[in-house]
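Title: Prediction job returns without error message
Component: structure pipeline
Severity: low
Priority: P3
Assignee: unassigned

Description:
Job completed but the reporter wants confirmation the result is attached to the right record. Sequence as submitted:
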Amino acid sequence: SRWLLGSITNKVLHATKVPLLVVRASEGEDTTPPSELTSIIVRLDGSTLAEESLSHVTDLARK
């Protein structure tokens, strides 16, 4: 997996204790991040922990 994703991504994937989705860009695809986010989608499961994540998402949206 390190060859496909890179060593840092590999370390993060193995160290995290939460679900994480990593999508690798296609070869030749522009990987420059957009200058600003236009939308953020948050999936909640009704748990207290999920609700607590909203403050972090709000902070991210304000940046």
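Comment from assignee: result matches the submitted record. The first helix runs from residue 2 to 5.
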